[in-house]
Amino acid sequence: MLKKLALASCLFVAAACSTVPITGRRQLSLVSDAEMNTMAATEYQKVLASSKLSSNSTQTAMVRRVGQRIQQAVETYFRQQNRQDQLEGYAWEFNLIEENQQNAWCMPGGKVAVYTGILPITQDENGLAVVMGHEIAHAVAKHSSERMSQQMAAQGIGSIASVAVGQTPTATQNVFLQAVGVGSSLGLLKYGRSQESEADHLGLIFMAMAGYDPQGAVPFWQRMEAQAGGGGTPEFLSTHPSNGTRIADIERELPEAKTYYKGR
Fold first, then answer.
1. Buried b / exposed e across 134-156, counting CB within 10 Å, b at 16+?
2. CA distance 98 to 247
3. N or C: which end of the chain has fewer CB within 10 A?
């Protein structure tokens, strides 16, 4: 009986795996995209309702312009790879929140928030594209779903996520909030090294396809490091470690990213 259960568990885990675009890495996926997108839409509206949106029309327009260009790049890439079905249910939103957090994030389904506190570090539209490309890459690579799946498996919430969502909604919501890492008290689960590397890699390609120079990623991460060294770690780095190795990896990936860069 134990052998049968073990075999069944292995088969279940194998069946509940997906593949990250571009890198091809296999990841655990116990939660459907529809469930993740629905939870994200609900929580995103809660964030917006409890936040102050920026009244700076120029900066808000820039955030939405960069977001929409990267959105188009992502959709083009997935269409070229005949994987556009992976973006079904996406309802993209891009908002600038007035708060002195040096932070930005993207929930599943394309729900993006940028905080005004990070704009002095991004400096310009190209720097902002580095940040938004990286965060959108986390979403389309389904890193939140992967983290949520790992936590649900570890906590024994349920062997089948759809059942867990229906039977233990509060526990499921808590795990979701931890997985997306939104808010100062919610960023409890850090992205792993492989997830960060993927977000850097995919983000470079998406920003390049959107017409932004991927070379700008190097000075951006250098500025983030300098900011962290000046006392107090920016929120953006609390779950996004920046170091010499990361910058070296980005520099190694730049030649590939530049093949997608046509400029505008």
1. bbbbbbbbbbbbbbbbbbbbeee
2. 29
3. N
DSSP 168-179: -HHHHHHHHHHH
CA atoms of 41 and 64, how far apart (whole Å):
18
Quote the CA–CA distance of 264 and 213 in Å, as a whole number.
Answer: 10
**Per-residue pLDDT reduced to its tens digit, 67-81:** 999 999 999 999 999
135 belongs to the catalytic site? yes
The answer to whether the pTM exceeds 0.90 is no
User: Which residues are bridge partners to 112 per DSSP?
Assistant: 94, 106
- Give the list of residues 6+ apart from residue 61 with CB closer than 8 angstroms, or none: none
Between CA 234 and CA 237 the distance in angstroms is 5
pLDDT in tens, 176-205: 555 555 543 333 345 566 778 889 999 999
Q: At what angle do helices 193-209 and 125-140 cross, to 10 degrees?
A: 130
Catalytic residue among 35, 43, 93, 135: 135
Specify the long-range contacts of residues 84-89, CB closer than 8 Å, at least 24 apart.
Answer: 86/21, 86/33, 86/140, 87/140, 88/33, 89/33, 89/34, 89/37
